[in-house]
Amino acid sequence: MRGVHIFMNYSFLNLGEEVLRSSDVPLSVEEIWEVAEKKGLTDKLGSSGKTPIRTLSARLYMDIKNSKNTIFEQVSKRPAKFFLKGKTADLAAYEETLEKESKEKETSFKERDLHILLSTFVNQDAHFNCYTKTIYHENSKKREKGYNKWLHPDIVGIYFPFEEYKNNTLRLLEALKENPYKLFAFEMKIDLNFSNLREYYFQAVSNSSWAHEGYLVTLNTEEDTQFIDELRRLNNAFGIGIIKLNPEHITQSEILFSAKTKEFLDWNTIDRLVNENSDFESFINDLMEDIKIGKIKSNYDSTFKDDDDAYDYAKSKRINNI
Fold this sequence. Notes:
26% of the residues are buried. Helix 2 packs across helix 3 and helix 10 (267-276) crosses helix 11 (278-293). The protein has 12 helices and 8 strands. The protein has 2 domains: 2-106, Arc Repressor Mutant, subunit A (Orthogonal Bundle), CATH 1.10.10; 111-321, no CATH class. By secondary structure, it is α/β, with parallel strands linked by helices. The protein is elongated, with a radius of gyration of 28 Å. The N and C termini lie far apart (58 Å).
């Protein structure tokens, strides 16, 4: 009977106290509940309801606010974490950890931090050997919502044949109406997996229609066999290539699937891009000037000279926790 009596009177506050008493650091409500489930403490509750975590949260906040004799205290707001009053031995260290985590989040890398890594790879890789320019969507003309959605990629590139062919050969190619130049479109993403694949892939399909080759570039790729098979199927059907960046050895980045090369460019889209985005207009003006003089003199995106410089940069940005 004593066991039944204890079981029947076990409350959410009892559960919170038992978990926090065994913990060396403050915990969020979700963490308290997770620990309680692992220890089987949730089974002691007479009834946990449909939303037990919300109930636990409400009980803790009410007890802290309304009870003069509460044993709980809230030690942080974002995220909200709780501890037992008087149990302060590790609080200083914990607050230092919170501050460090907050700073790390503030300095965590952004998608655009990957641009210089991609530019370095495609500039040095034999397949591309191209010069790039970042296209900032915020520099597109302000239109009604959705008008310019998926219009242009994150980065565009141009292959110049100046170092590969002599001037006489280039003039011959021009006379024969052969095009030795190649335009590239690159859509950059940090993670690529089943949950976002279709959205990201067809975004790349949409904003690379104007170029000779379009690529979806990612830092982290799901390595599941079925996922790779789906990438292959999409590549066969729509022709967008996949590049996986290697921030530790940028020149060893991989072209998982090569793009299908288009013979003809989409001039209507190119004209619209020139009209809608000043960065793209500048890119076209620069490459036309360089083609005219037969030399690369315009300013394109910066690149690193070698893998060591790229590695130091990735480390400074905490890219993939390097």
